[in-house]
Prior knowledge:
It contains twelve helices and 21 strands. It has helices at residues 77-86, 106-116, 138-144, 171-184, 195-207, 213-218, 223-239, 251-262, 280-286, 302-311, 348-359, 363-377, and strands at residues 2-8, 11-14, 17-20, 22-26, 29-34, 40-46, 51-54, 56-61, 89-94, 123-129, 149-153, 187-191, 242-245, 267-272, 316-318, 394-398, 403-404, 423-424, 427-433, 436-440, 444-445. Helix 2 (106-116) links the parallel strand 9 (89-94) and strand 10. The site of zinc ion has 5 residues, from loops. This is Allantoinase. Its cofactor is Zn(2+).
Amino acid sequence: MTFDLIIKNGLVILEDGAKHVDVGVTDGKITAIAETLTGDADKVIDAQGQVVSPGMVDAHVHITDPGGGYRDGWEGYDTGTRAAAKGGVTSFVEMPLNQVPATTDKASIEEKFDAGKGDLTVDVASYGGLVPYNLDGGIQELDDAGVVAYKAFLATCGDRSIEGDFENVDDYSLYEGMKQIAKTGKILSVHAENANITDKLGEIAYKNGETTLSAYVDSRPVFTEVEPIRKLILFAKETGCRLHIVHVACEEGVEEIVKAQQEGVDVTCETCTHYLYFYKEELDDIGPVVKCSPPIREQSRLEGMWDRVQNGDIDFVTSDHSPCTPDLKDTDNAFEAWGGIAGIQNNVDVLYDEGVQKRDMSLERFADIIATAPAKRFGLDSKGSIAIGKDADFVFINPNSSYTLKAEDLAYRNQMSPYIGREIGAQVARTILRGKEVYSQENGVTDAKDGQFI
Ligand SMILES: [Zn+2]
């Protein structure tokens, strides 16, 4: 047999465990896995000493392209997908906000596809939005356009002075939207925080002269995450809509989801790398670059979240890569700063170090939380695992190889990240998309733009 590529000598994470095997690739697909492959190959990569994982499928990424004249300096497709490649992410699911217009119907998703055309270093799947203003055909148009899932906000979001910006749902639009989405068979993913209480507590703290991130965390208490999760589960039972809760930041929220699963509700959840790494007591030393919502909670809660990732109660981990321009983070008042963390480049290395190396996570579970589980949940059938017939998407990891992240390492349009200055104990050595190298420590990120909207 002749292959385009053979990967030799790596510790390869297969669905039934990590093994020292060779992997053969033909026409962008995995075509052979064996102890030793003997056929001819145009290219052979020696992965001696490296872990070969399925490329990350990051199910929560914000690319702000088009910016619509309002957010033009935010993350674009070119830089965002380069950073993905550098971080071992071979595909991601893109959120339907903060681009202008938000992705809420046929016209806006086509505008988005145009903005990304020829600019993708990795593959991109799309979310469509559920907003109060797209219940008159928008949901169906997005289904026809091939979105993999829908996204709604219960927390307040969007700028009402920008026409076409995203908006959080009221209870009626949530209910009606879930009925419509149920008919598509797709999943609704929701940012679950109580808008009314968190807005008001934030307002009061701000008026009282509070400025710290610690006070910001206190203005979004745990029960304001739990209450909307309960409501969403009730709505899911009523409408039959499949449900996913994005970036759960507390165990109490996870507990509600586990209970609902036991009752037979089709509901899953994710958390983000930053909720497994940072903690409240250090946030003010880091500054507004680490502000996000739901907020990062106390150090005492960190290991409980890791336990839930290990035991599968939390289905997978995402970056919620949500960058803005530096001016929006340049304030001493945490309440005034934009909330969002740039993180797509530091999922694989941080999760490998913190999960596998520091907390004895199995390699199988590692591949599951970064790739297999999100690909399955969102129906990305060609992605997420190293198996015959799947896309040849890989990330090669150098274990026990620490480095300190510098701003200039970041491929983002704006080189901001709370991980800057942190020592990370593993490194992404190489990323391969459908059989072609898109990043290596040797060659950097490729200028070829072979990524596709999927
Ligand atoms: Zn997000």
